[in-house]
Amino acid sequence: MNFQLSEEHLMIQQAARDFAQAECLPGVIERDEKMQFPREQLEKLADLGFLGMMVSTDYGGAGLDTVSYVLAMEEISKVDASVSVCMSVNNSLVCYGLEAYGTEEQKQKYLTPLAQGKKDGALYTGAFLLSEPEAGSDATSQRTTAEDKGDHYLLNGTKNWITNGGTASVYLVIAQTDPSKGHKGISVFIVEKSWPGVVVGGKENKLGIRASDTHTIMFNDVKVPKENRIGEDGFGFKFAMKTLAGGRIGIASQALGIASGAYELSLKYSKERKAFGKPISEHQAIAFKLADMATRIEAAKLLCFKASFDKDQKRDYTLSASMAKVFASETAMWTTVEAVQIHGGYGYVKEYHVERLMRDAKITQIYEGTSEVQRIVIGREIIKQ
Ligand code: CAA
Ligand code: FAD
């Protein structure tokens, strides 16, 4: 066992750290307040190769491993989780799903520009459309239908909470092709946002990750060519579950970054702020909070690396990804609440960043499977083993 990061990993970590400081930190408070999509930041991330980090270089990706992805996600999430959620969806849900299960034609046409994050010089990203008004955790209860019409499918229904919904060019849409078959009658399609019948609802006004782009998407008789189905008819639910396992590593590393960002700010502040004649870090109540933060963050990091290692070694990573996600997201929530406490009244105002990190942390316990769903997955896996 080797707990040492490679030279390449350290370089990627440093590049992501530099990027977060130089490109994400300026304006982060304003973008959050105004719900302003971080287009410029994402365009620059695309140029760095961070929107298709794990995609093979044959398809325009950076060809890196999952550990590199975790390191980059952590560094960017320390500063701006609205940027990192867009990055995470494009990398681990959209690009992964297409590379693992798409046809050669689908990869040439869609994966290459998505991995590069650009087409004709403009930002080009994807979104993953599973959730519906009545199908969130209970994801097999899909109401969106795709009716087989011979050479095409006719898509109808509503998806909600879709990250990148207003800005993505390509959607991976999960829909019911045969309701009588339950989850075995669910399929997955590549749909272009510009097609007739695709309607983008208003941007959600959220508690956290406010600059990210979350929308309801409606499909009204959208014609989807047969060649845009990914995998066999009926593969859609398995596709979603397999893809989400990798997505959960991305969100776990986002949560890890939010927690680490709050911890770093708290450590610095507690050494500078004096009360009762000494830095507050010298009061044991504060030092214990810092000790618990550091310990939980280290444990979360190791779980993220374990899940990445399993994925890179092509082992089953369903269990380790869910463990990383539930632990890192709960660490992020706990750490950010304590970070506000350590900052006292200053923690409650925007300039000190920790109140935003606290608001951003909450979503990591909800999306890509709530903490309850992760415990369902973990429970089933450990009993099965
Ligand atoms: N890999 C492969 N197949 C899997 C699987 C996996 N990880 N998990 C389940 N399956 C298969 C099962 O084997 C079963 O197939 P068979 O009948 O052929 O054996 C089928 O899928 C149905 O599985 P379950 O019976 O376990 O299904 P369930 O109804 O009990 O649901 C669940 C299980 C884990 C709760 C699942 O519905 C789930 O993960 N829900 C949460 C949905 C979610 O994470 N949504 C995220 C949306 S994307 C997002 O949120 C992005 C973002 O914010 C940025
Ligand atoms: P519900 O499933 O209704 O759950 C409500 C509560 O009940 C939760 O606490 C849940 O854990 C609990 N619960 C439900 N079932 C059980 C059970 N069996 N046992 C114990 N507890 C249970 N979805 C996408 O498809 N693509 C996206 O890009 C995307 N981005 C998102 C971005 C944001 C900002 C948000 C808020 C959501 C996003 N989602 C996305 C949707 C997200 O994945 C769902 O909100 C999530 O899966 C939970 O579903 P729900 O909201 O319907 O809650």
UniProtKB/TrEMBL annotation:
<keyword id="KW-0274">FAD</keyword>
<keyword id="KW-0285">Flavoprotein</keyword>
<dbReference type="InterPro" id="IPR006089">
    <property type="entry name" value="Acyl-CoA_DH_CS"/>
</dbReference>
<feature type="domain" description="Acyl-CoA dehydrogenase/oxidase C-terminal">
    <location>
        <begin position="236"/>
        <end position="382"/>
    </location>
</feature>
<dbReference type="InterPro" id="IPR009075">
    <property type="entry name" value="AcylCo_DH/oxidase_C"/>
</dbReference>
<dbReference type="InterPro" id="IPR036250">
    <property type="entry name" value="AcylCo_DH-like_C"/>
</dbReference>
<dbReference type="InterPro" id="IPR046373">
    <property type="entry name" value="Acyl-CoA_Oxase/DH_mid-dom_sf"/>
</dbReference>
<dbReference type="Pfam" id="PF02771">
    <property type="entry name" value="Acyl-CoA_dh_N"/>
</dbReference>
<dbReference type="InterPro" id="IPR013786">
    <property type="entry name" value="AcylCoA_DH/ox_N"/>
</dbReference>
<feature type="domain" description="Acyl-CoA dehydrogenase/oxidase N-terminal">
    <location>
        <begin position="6"/>
        <end position="118"/>
    </location>
</feature>
<keyword id="KW-0560">Oxidoreductase</keyword>
<dbReference type="GO" id="GO:0050660">
    <property type="term" value="F:flavin adenine dinucleotide binding"/>
</dbReference>
<dbReference type="Pfam" id="PF00441">
    <property type="entry name" value="Acyl-CoA_dh_1"/>
</dbReference>
<protein>
    <recommendedName>
        <fullName>Cyclohex-1-ene-1-carbonyl-CoA dehydrogenase</fullName>
        <ecNumber>1.3.8.10</ecNumber>
    </recommendedName>
</protein>
<dbReference type="Pfam" id="PF02770">
    <property type="entry name" value="Acyl-CoA_dh_M"/>
</dbReference>
<dbReference type="InterPro" id="IPR006091">
    <property type="entry name" value="Acyl-CoA_Oxase/DH_mid-dom"/>
</dbReference>
<feature type="domain" description="Acyl-CoA oxidase/dehydrogenase middle">
    <location>
        <begin position="127"/>
        <end position="222"/>
    </location>
</feature>
<dbReference type="InterPro" id="IPR009100">
    <property type="entry name" value="AcylCoA_DH/oxidase_NM_dom_sf"/>
</dbReference>
<dbReference type="InterPro" id="IPR037069">
    <property type="entry name" value="AcylCoA_DH/ox_N_sf"/>
</dbReference>
<comment type="similarity">
    <text>Belongs to the acyl-CoA dehydrogenase family.</text>
</comment>
<dbReference type="GO" id="GO:0003995">
    <property type="term" value="F:acyl-CoA dehydrogenase activity"/>
</dbReference>
